[in-house]
Amino acid sequence: LSNFVVKDEL
Amino acid sequence: MNIFRLIGDMSHLLAIVLLLLKMWKTRSCAGISGKSQILFALVFATRYLDLFTAFISAYNSTMKLFFISTSLVTVYLMYFKFRATYDANHDTFRLEFLVVPVGGLAFLVNHNFSPLEILWTFSIYLESVAILPQLFMMSKTGEAETITSHYLFALGSYRALYILNWVFRYYFEGFFDLIAVVAGCVQTILYCDFFYLYITKVLKGKKLSLPA
């Protein structure tokens, strides 16, 4: 899970 | 957040509200592809799992919860409450022809080989083609109700506005997500034929009927 790049778009 | 992104999100929101209103007011889901709606529910369910792992903003979380819940309500209305009005005979697109290749592609082409990232990628690819069962259904019946064409126009405009948002973000923020951009362009291109018919017919007060 830690490898997930946070996405700010929907 | 820029103006294109905001109008894009509002357009997406409007599309969903229009669809729910159409179904609720007419007590019918005639002309709507349940298969496309199942795909949209799958898109939201696989994309917004980060609701549990990252907090971005109240706006972001609220919209995610809205999209997930309304997509489930839509599927419920179509397959349970208004099932008698569902036009299954014309909704014959085979979902496995989309879900299987898209799943394979998400495994092969992603930013990071981790469960959440693969599911996000799957969701982005799936969204780009999720409207195909709806377009296929309309090509079989040869027409669409005016409210359905407003719904589709708002839904298609949303990703087109996101493309403008990505151009803006590339120039002003140096932000660039190749997967989202390519999938977003594919998604928008699929709507072009519909956009043309919408502008030349529906906006001039005519019902959307497809050339034979």
In words, what does this structure look like?
The complex is a heterodimer of chains A (10) and B (212). Chain A is low in regular secondary structure and 10 residues long. Chain A has no helix or strand. Chain A is rod-shaped, with a radius of gyration of 8 Å. The termini of chain A are far apart. Chain B is mostly helical and 212 residues long. A two-stranded antiparallel sheet of chain B has the order 1-2. At the A-B interface, loops of A face helix 1, helix 3 and helix 5 of B. Chain B: It is found in: Endoplasmic reticulum membrane. Chain B: Belongs to the ERD2 family. Chain B: Pfam families: ER_lumen_recept. Chain B: This is ER lumen protein-retaining receptor.
Could you list some keywords that capture this structure?
heterodimer, A: 10 residues, little secondary structure, B: 212 residues, mainly alpha, 71% helix, transmembrane (chain B)
What is the fold's blueprint, element by element?
The complex is a heterodimer of chains A (10) and B (212).
Chain A: no helix or strand
Chain B: H1 3-26, H2 34-47, H3 58-81, H4 96-108, H5 115-129, H6 132-141, E1 143-144, H7 146-173, H8 178-200, E2 208-209
Antiparallel strand pairs in B: 1-2
Helix pairs in contact in B: 1-3, 1-7, 2-3, 2-5, 4-5, 5-8, 7-8
